[in-house]
Amino acid sequence: MDDVFRALADPSRRELLDRLFARNGQTLNELCDRLAEAGASMTRQAVSKHLAILEGANLVATVRRGREKLHYLNPVPIHEIAERWIGKYERHRLSALAELKKGLEAKKDSEAKDE
Amino acid sequence: MSESSFVYVTYIRTTPEKLWQALIDPEFTRKYWFQAWQESEWKPGASWRLMVPDGRVTDSGEVIEIEPHRRLVLSWRNEFKPELRAEGYSRLTYLLEPQGDTVKLTVMHEIDVPKAKFIEAVSNGWPHILASLKSLLETGASLEATRRWPKEKM
Question: Which residues of chain A have pLDDT under 50?
């Protein structure tokens, strides 16, 4: 569990997880290309190092297909952490609150754009 | 790799034999898989069905590969929702690899349909099921939330 928190404590690694959430099963090259397109300043070496840490924490699962290594977001450890402290009674209330927050923030964003 | 897929990995403190039994034995799956169980003769080419408490078949397919305690590949199609059924057969792979005093369980689910609704639907369920399976094998108790078939799924 320490590995999971350590891995998540870095914004670059969270960015990589976001990228895999948007598109699962990417190679190192694909991840680097998309990051470069988005103007992110992560070197290939840094991406590779961060992916290894994420894989060590089991937040990224990899599969070999021929010569390619595909990276997948693995949400199971986060789920195990959530289950430890969040019971079934709380989950519905929390998801209702999360929806409310999302709804209100989306509204605020669109108002900000209108101004 | 197929058009839509996911890969989940969990490490469980158990043996490949116990994990294998937990993956296919109805007594076990009912405890961590929302009371669902599977019917199959568990040999290559055998039919496979996933059943829910009221006796309905939610998903069906065939055993494609089976290597006890190591590897199981199923073809898998939803029989419950027309929009998911229309996407055809997916492929599910379980891989069991002993690592020290744990077993690394890899679950791969893939389908040759871009942005498949089926994959989106099952990918909501697997993390719950796998976390509960781990809890059951390590502590003897599955997770509360996975012990009943949810009414909203009916």
Answer: none
Inform me whether the C-beta atom of residue B150 falls under 8 Å from chain A C-beta atoms: no
How is residue A107 annotated by DSSP? H
A68 and A98 share a domain? Answer: no
Report chain A residues whose CB lies below 8 A from the CB of B143.
83
pLDDT of residue A87: 62
Residues in A whose CB is inside 8 Å of some CB of B read 24-25, 58, 61-63, 65, 70, 72, 74-77, 79-80, 83, 87-88, 91
Would you say B18 and B139 are in contact if contact means Cβ atoms under 8 Å apart?
A: no
pLDDT of residue B154: 47
* B10 shares contact with chain A (CB less than 8 Å): yes
Q: How far apart are CA A103 and CA B36, in angstroms?
A: 35
Same domain, A19 and A43: yes
Is the domain of A6 the same as that of A37?
A: yes
| Residues of chain B where predicted confidence (pLDDT) is lower than 70 | 1-2, 151-154
- Full domain range(s) for residue A39: 2-74
For B106, which of A61, A65, A75 is closest by C-beta distance? A61
CATH superfamily of B4-139: START domain (3.30.530.20)
The three-class DSSP label of residue B102 is: strand
State whether A16 and A70 are in the same domain: yes
Determine contact, residues A75/A61, Cβ cutoff 8 Å: no
